[in-house]
Structures are given as structure tokens and as C-alpha cells.
Amino acid sequence: MATSAMLIARDDAAIETAVARLMERFGTRCATGESIREQHGHTTTYLTNQPPDAVVFASSTEEVAEIVRTCAEFGVPLIPFGTGTSLEGHLNAPAGGISIDLSAMNRIVAVNAEDLDCTVEAGVTRMQLNENLRDQGLFFPIDPGADASLGGMAATRASGTNAVRYGTMKDNVLALTAVMADGTIVRTGSRARKSSAGYDLTRLLVGSEGTLAVITEVTLKLSGIPGAVSAGVCPFPDVESACNAVIMTIQSGLPVARIEFLDEHQVRACNAYSKLDLAEMPTLFLEFHGTEAGVAEQADRFGDIAEEFGGGPFDWATRTEDRSRLWKARHEAYWASLRLKPAAKGVSTDVCVPISRLAECVMATRADIEENGFTATMVGHVGDGNFHVLVLFDPDNPDEMAATNGFIERLNWRAIEMGGTCTGEHGIGQGKMKYMAREHGPALDVMRTIKRALDPGNIMNPGKIFTLDG
Amino acid sequence: MATSAMLIARDDAAIETAVARLMERFGTRCATGESIREQHGHTTTYLTNQPPDAVVFASSTEEVAEIVRTCAEFGVPLIPFGTGTSLEGHLNAPAGGISIDLSAMNRIVAVNAEDLDCTVEAGVTRMQLNENLRDQGLFFPIDPGADASLGGMAATRASGTNAVRYGTMKDNVLALTAVMADGTIVRTGSRARKSSAGYDLTRLLVGSEGTLAVITEVTLKLSGIPGAVSAGVCPFPDVESACNAVIMTIQSGLPVARIEFLDEHQVRACNAYSKLDLAEMPTLFLEFHGTEAGVAEQADRFGDIAEEFGGGPFDWATRTEDRSRLWKARHEAYWASLRLKPAAKGVSTDVCVPISRLAECVMATRADIEENGFTATMVGHVGDGNFHVLVLFDPDNPDEMAATNGFIERLNWRAIEMGGTCTGEHGIGQGKMKYMAREHGPALDVMRTIKRALDPGNIMNPGKIFTLDG
């Protein structure tokens, strides 16, 4: 399988022709200014910015199909763009090409409250959707750190703090509208809650990072806003006991809605940035959803588990404002950490292991950080065995940069060796391609065969997941 | 896309050579007797039995790979076989070929209680697994009517009565071992609870019905046996009020573990077959999982909803024996219905619609049954909008058979028109191919492109999902 080569290289003449065609068609909605192009390449980490040659602001699925057909005609790469918050270089244009900016496709097409689902255009962000839903007593639970677009979240199989209870994008997308590499518009899935009617194209496109299709509309499962919510904070004497409390919580079947780990460095950063006064110790942030009685029962059970591992006191945030402050701080953790080392760049890496290996993986990673004297914070959606390390380094110091890269590589190999994955939620992009062969073995060739079949010209976000030769 | 033809037709010489090779290699484990071949074709409904040319009993993934390589070498079709309980003709050999019987691959490879997961060979059945898990306080929730193999359940994206709470096979398979069309053994996914590392091959193979790969091992999520379980039965004055009570239950976010609909004909059949004494009215069977307090609260809330729609009394089955009797009767519903018309054949069809359309779809279907004077029962996993109709007809009466087919077609078009699917859980096989184009539109060509890329010789269960020309 996967034998035919599909290398795509920069073709200046083809790009020039395609851009001219798109400018003629889209006028000022086809932009080629340097700053707008740079802003549509990768901007969030140390990965090099590789700007596209033009940015087209699309306003409908049909327009996206038109742009794709133009790119296909001239063999020019295209890169879908939502909010630009990807962390692994998904938006870069290593062989040049056209960025399709979907942010103007921000209409909420339908909310079917009676079916607990909705359909939105790809550019709608998670916060915009939740603002819209609030009055109907509904919410969409997936919450990556950024206020990402729902199309981008689908494309990277995003998750966040609620995944332990509500699942990831994989579990919450019912159907998609997407434009394939030849410009065909397809609808995958339906609003039925389950189906055995053929291949699960929805799940194939979720997580495909724009390499198979441009997602233009997303049909999502919604959840009812729980009748009762409580949140709390629980410090632990060390990282190991915090992790062990998480493992026991999950194993005992306690239906926590959120269970987030922050190491003491992250707590210190949050205290400073978000004006909290938490004890600077390894800490769990928790949230419980249910009825009044159910939530109280869950909290009691968690309190017992925490105590068993030497944690506590378990401090309640019962008021809505206190809860919001806590979760705001959690979502600001990335920005808070960046302040720990002024002028440094940060790289946030993401792995996920089976829950039984969590403490071991976190401890080994912590030891590695200490041995190498990194400034680094650890946070995690630990109920899923998923955690992130943010390493701060001086981008002008090649030794620091090399050391950081070495650390990230060791962390990824460690997670894979433990039966885990090199990314729980950030995706592969450019940054994690090197781990794919070891993680997937011969299955990587199956992925490559699918890519080559659905995108024979290798124009769909080339150089992501797979190298530029597909 | 999907332009190259890949018609496969019966090739006697190739089949003879492949069978000779397999007999030499597998001895008595390669069987060609007529009865064993017939038993490995389709046997459960009115679809014609099309036996394979030989049945090979495989005992390991490596042996499956060897059989696949032999089939690939000679261009001979292969059909994976678990327990033979498929309802849509998945096991038939319309172009001849080799049935790979996986029932001897029935080892439980690993139970990782601390991670709530396990790995089993494809031939392990759901009841065998649950027997094995019981002592550890764990269970696997997916329960199609038959005691199907877990490989077969993955291949058809099966579900059952617990899906409303625990999801379907799509949601409960973490990873797979599978043999691709060229004999390559792949491992998709990992034991990590979530991953964004490339294409979701696990979800692509779940529901692919043996047309892309032979699944040989399945890694499954497990659930803790709930601390408290209660079940109950609630009759309703008519079908509409029962459906409306279901809709309200789901919309209000009540986390029912099971909510099953039986129409009055099905209740009558169950009373006779399973020796129950239920009122012969449209009825819901329910089950609640949780803590003692949680379960009692859920039951109270359901009781209120039922009353609002004129249902009741809501009868409790608190004792384990009573609950078992109830669910045994539910799982025997198919056999019970067959007794309603002696010597008749039954055809069980399966659709799924958005929950808001459930009452409308069930009512229209009921009217169709009555207008045509069919002997038919309706049951449903209605919490997902999924229901089945079992029509009994005389297979020697061509008029009855044509009328039954016409009814089934109308039901499927109705479900698709309502934004639903032609199968919630039985799969496409041979029986539902005709609905694929209308349900999926241009997305069907995307499926076909994937099939052609991964199985260029069209040897993997040809004539299922797609016609014999792929």
C-alpha cells in the first residue's frame, strides 16, 4: 500500500496564477499583505512562521468549494484557518498556497433544542456558541484553552477540561459538511444519534487536520446545563499523591465533570497572573455536575479519596463567581506560565497515557525537568491520563532550544512506551510528525493510503500529519 | 473520485487453487462440507443463503494474515465469521470465497481493571466476556439481541439496550488489531483514553463490515458495575404517549441506562413466550444505574414524566431475579415474535431518527402495518430514536413477501426523510445497500474511494455495503 509518491513542492508560477484567479473572483476578500499572511501562518510557539501566499475570506460552503476547485486546478496547496490557535504548526504553508479563512462563516445554522443538537458554520467559536445556547439551558462542553473555532476543534479532535465526563470532539460531532480535494461538497453522518450505515466518515474527518477535506459546517451534540454544579480545589503534598488520588477517583467510577492537575509551579504562576491565593502545592481543580444531592455525594466521596492520599483540605467554591474565577484561572494557565520567565518563548506539549501509568509518567517527566533545570509548568486533564508541559526557553539560545527539544522528545517516547499517545488533543501538525511511525507502526501506511486516495494531488494542508511527500 | 472499476466475479479456478492451498496448510481446519458451508452463509432472515466455498477455522492473527495473503494471491473473496447472527446478509458469499471463522479465537488477552479496559480476541462473545469480568466488578455494556462475538459487534458498529447511557461500539472500542487486504497486520489506536495522533482508523474499521480489514483483536472500554440498579415497567394508553414520554425523558437529561419500547403485540408475544403477565399495552422497560439515592431520584422523575403522558402504573422490579427475567424477556423478543405466526419467516428491520421525530415515525409505521394487515411487532432502543419492526410473512407466498419488502422500503425512506438513518445498529450488509445513495449522497463516493484504495482487488467481503463492482 501507499507506494505512489505524492511530493508537493512550491510552484511559484502555479501559485501566482491561482492567486490572480482568486483575487479576480474575491476582490478584497483575497488578501496578500505581508502582515495578514504572517498572521495566518503559525504564530503560537517556537515553530517557524511559514506564511501562505494569499488569504481568502470565505463566506459559504459553496465559496470554499470554489476556492478548492481553483487550488485543485493549479495544484496549489490550501490550508483551512479558524482562529489561529493551533499549537503544532497546522496553519503553516511549507510549500506555499492559499489560507482559507473561515472566521466569517460564523452563523449558527440551527439549534434543535428538542434533539439536544445544533449545526454551526465552521468559524463559530465555542464561546460564541455557548453564549447563544445559555438561554435555552443548553451548553457545548468541549473547551480547549483557546476560544477556538468549532471547525478547527473538529479538525484537530480537540478536547479540554470536560472531556473526562463529556468526551472529546470525536464523541460530540454528529455530522459534518466538508469540501473534498476535488471540490465536491459532502455531508457525513446525520442527526440520528447512532447509525451503522457504512463507513464513519465523520470520525475519519474529525482529527484529519485539513489534510482530507475542509470542514465547513459541524453538527454537534449538546448537553443540558446541569441542575447543580460545584467546584473545589484540593492541594496535595506531592505530585505522586495527587496523581494517585486521580487514578483512584476514576477507577472508583466517580463521575467527575472536571479533574485538573496543576503542579506547584503552575499554581504559583496562576496566583500571580489570576490573583488567586492558593497554597503553592500540587493541586487538583474539580467540578461535579448533577442534582444537588448527587453533587454533594460525589464531593464527599472525592474528599474521602483525597484524604486517603494525604491531600486536603478540599476547599469548596460554591458561588458561581468563585467557580468562574477558578476556571478562568485554569484557562489562563498558559498565559500565566509565560510570565514566569520574561522574554522567553513557551512550548506546550501534550501526551496521554493509560490512567494507571499517569503517576509514573508525570513523576519521570518531573524528574527530567529538574535534572535539566528547566523553567516548566505541568497541567493536565488528568482524568483522561492527559497532561501538558509548558517549557519556557530563550529562543535566542540554541543550547536551551536544543535541550528543550530533547526533553519534549523524551516525554513523547515515554508516553508511547507506556501504551499512550504523542498527543491527547493538540494534534500532529508539523510538530509531532516524527512520533507517528513509532506510535502507529504499519497503521501509518494505512493512513497514508487514505490520504493519497482522497487527495491525490496532495493539496490539502500538505506537510501536516505526513511530510510534504505525503 | 472512485472511478476505477473493481468488479469481482466468481472465479472457479482461482477458488479451487486457493482452497487446495488452504486445505494443505490447515488440514481439517479447512472445511468444505455442504452443511458447514451453508451454516457460514446467511441464515437468520429471508435473504438467500449464499455459502462460501470453504470455511477456515483460524486460531491466531498470524493465521488470519496467512489466509488473507492466500486469498489476495489468487484474487479470492474472504468473509470474516464470528457467531453468524448478522441480520442483513453480511456473511453471504455472492462471488464465492473463503469464510474465516474466528470463533476459536476466543481468548481474553488482558483485563486491565485499573484502566477499565480489556483486550479480547475477535471470537470472544459478549456474554463470555461479562462472565469473566463479573468477579472484578466490571462489565461491558453493549448488548445486541444475540450473544454476538465482539469482533462481529465491532465490524457492524453494534449497540443494544444500554446504548442510550453507555454508547455504541463506536464509543467503546479503544483499539483494534486487524489484517488488511494485503495481509499486513495493523494495530489501530492505543489504550490511551484519547488521542489526536492522526486519522481515527479505529472508528473507520468499526462498522466497516469486513470490507476493509479482518478484525482479530478488540480493546474495549469497560464500566464498573453500578452500585445500585433498579428496573421497571410502565404501560401507556397508546404508542404516541409512550414515545412522547421517552422524548421528554431524554430532553430533560435524565440519565436512564435503558429505555426500551415494546408495542402491545410484542408485549403479548413476550407474555406467551417468556411467561410474563404484563398488561398488553404499549410499554416501556426502564433501568436506572447509579447510587441508591441517585437511582431512586431518577425513578421518581421518570414516574412524574410517565404520569404526565397518561402512563402508569410504573411497576418496580427491585429484586435481581425480577430484573433478569424482564431483560431476558426483552432479549427474547425476536424469538417470541416469531411464534405469533407459525411457519412464518421474520424480517427484523432497523431504523433510527432524531428523537424529536420518534413518535411521528413510529406512528406512521404503525399506520402502515395496520393498513396492510401485517403481523408485526415493534420494539425499540427508543432513547436513541432507534426502533425495529419484525414483520412475519409466509416465504412461500410471493405476494406477502413483496408486500413486506415494500413496507420495509417505505420505512427506510421515511426514516431517511426525517433526518435519520436506514440502520441504527444492524448494518448495511446486502439488505440495505439500496438506501445508501439517498442517505449519503456524494459521501458514498468518498466511502467507495476508501474501499478501492484499501482493498484494490475487492476481496474483502465483496458485495456488502457496496455492490460487487465495489
From TrEMBL, chains A, B:
The keyword Transit peptide applies. It is an enzyme of class 1 (oxidoreductase). Keywords: FAD, Flavoprotein, Oxidoreductase, Transit peptide. GO terms for molecular function: D-lactate dehydrogenase (cytochrome) activity; D-lactate dehydrogenase (NAD+) activity; FAD binding. It comes from the Bacteria. Signal peptide: none annotated. Its cofactor is FAD. It holds the Pfam family FAD-oxidase_C. The keyword Disulfide bond does not apply. Its EC number is 1.1.2.4. One of its GO terms (biological process) is lactate catabolic process. Residues 48-225 form the FAD-binding PCMH-type domain. Belongs to the FAD-binding oxidoreductase/transferase type 4 family. This is D-lactate dehydrogenase (cytochrome).
